[in-house]
Specification:
180 residues; 8-stranded antiparallel β-barrel; elongated
């Protein structure tokens, strides 16, 4: 049994590293800091502004020439007068489709679903509640050196849950992607 497992691992690694079809896998990461322009109004608290910090890591696997399947993890921290700085999470599955590809440039659309504990609704401060989001996004990737790409785009995680005056988690993206 150990021989079969070892052989499977060996051939899997060789297939990934030495296959003619390169760049089937990629890992991306970005960090973004946003000042929330909306004034947050909560009962018995003065108006204040929030800072939103998002750290993201994604993994994608190319299923077809222009289609990727992937997973992402966002670590979010919201700071401000009304926030304790405790982290939130966003975990999602998505598919990316290359709308346009040319040598070292591609434009890609994203659709998916995510689960998070971060909820924005009305004029209240962000709250913790279990939320299912749909993911919409678009981004461009520009090759800078061999396997390294710069990613620039915009993603929105919009809640499916029935919440009064809800709105999504939206953030611009400027990050790095490594394809192997």
């Amino acid at each position: 049994m150990k021989l079969y497992i070892s052989a499977f691992i060996y051939f899997s690694i060789n297939t990934i590293l030495f296959s003619q079809d390169r760049e089937r896998h990629d890992i991306g990461a970005f960090f973004v800091a946003l000042k929330n322009r909306d004034e947050i109004v909560a009962p018995n608290i003065e108006k204040s502004y929030l800072w939103e910090y998002y750290m993201n890591i994604t993994y994608r696997y190319r299923v077809l020439k222009k289609l990727y399947a992937g997973a992402e993890y966002n670590y979010a921290v919201i700071t401000g007068d009304q926030q304790d700085g405790a982290p939130f999470y966003i975990i999602g599955l998505f598919s990316d489709y290359d709308i346009f590809q040319h040598k070292g440039l591609s434009f890609t659309g994203r659709l998916g679903l995510s689960n998070s504990n971060l909820s924005f609704a009305g004029d209240e401060a962000p709250t913790r509640r279990n939320i299912i989001n749909r993911i919409f996004g678009i981004h461009a990737e520009l090759k800078i050196h061999k396997a390294f790409w710069i990613q620039l785009g915009y993603f929105n995680h919009y809640p499916l849950n029935k919440i009064k005056y809800k709105y999504g988690i939206a953030h611009p993206v400027l990050g790095l992607r490594v394809k192997f």
